[in-house]
Every structure is written in C-alpha cells, then in structure tokens.
Amino acid sequence: QVHLVESGGGVVQAGGSLRLSCAASGSVFSINTMHWYQQAPGKQRELVASITSGGSTNYADSVKGRFTISRDNGSDTVSLQMNKLKPEDTAVYYCSARNYYREYWGQGTQVTVSS
C-alpha cells in the first residue's frame, strides 16, 4: 500500500507561481509512475503531468512549458512546479501513484488563481 500527502496549494495571482509537493510513504519501492491531476468544479479529473520510475515525464498540452514535474529524495517525493499560472488552472490538484496492482490517490490540495 502507498500513502500520499499533497501540500503547497494556495491562492496566487495570474502569472504567479506555486510549488506543489506529494510525499509518498509505505510501499514506495513498488511505485512505477506518479502523476498530478487537476479537477475543476463541475469538470472531470484531468491528467496534468506524469513521471516514471526512470525519470521520463509527460505533460498535458495545457500546461506544457509552464509546469514541471520532478522526483526528490529517492523518488519518494514528487513536486509540481507551476509557473505562469492562469485562472483556468484553478482546481483541486491530486497526486497519484501507480504500482502493478492499482493507483493510489492523495486527498488533494486547492489551487486558486485570481485575475
């Protein structure tokens, strides 16, 4: 089993930056990939960024060039650096970790971008 705890959300003006962190604990050795998702009110949860155990990254078109996902401390912490934030980035951001059997989810952290 894997436990995930997100932190770093808050309120920021358009054009500003935030850094989200996701701390993984438990069977972290079993994690293959980690992800950040966003879910705005009334919308489906959407994949924002992913990173594999090998360090490969992928981004949604909407955030490519603005957001950066990275691993720290032996891959047990994943960060999402968000730059040039836009009001449309406003959402609850969720961290997830996938192993061979299932995907685990954190509780989410609210990001609000004001105009």
Top keywords for this entry?
mainly beta, 115 residues, seven-stranded mixed beta sheet
Could you characterize what this model shows?
The model has no long low-confidence stretch (mean pLDDT 95). With 115 residues, this protein is mainly beta. The strands form 2 sheets. Strands 2, 4, 5, 6, 9, 10 and 11 form a 7-stranded mixed β-sheet that branches. It starts with a strand and ends with a strand. Strand 7 and strand 8 (77-82) form a beta hairpin. 30% of the residues are buried. The chain has no helices and 11 strands.
Output mean pLDDT: 95
Return the structural class. Answer: mainly beta
Task: Please provide the count of β strands.
Answer: 11
Strand percentage lies at over 45%
Radius of gyration: 13 Å
Order of helices and strands: EEEEEEEEEEE
**What form results from the Cα inertia axes?**
globular
Distance between the termini: 40 Å
Q: Helical proportion?
A: under 10%
**Unreliable stretches covering 5 or more consecutive residues:** none
**Oligomerization state:** single chain
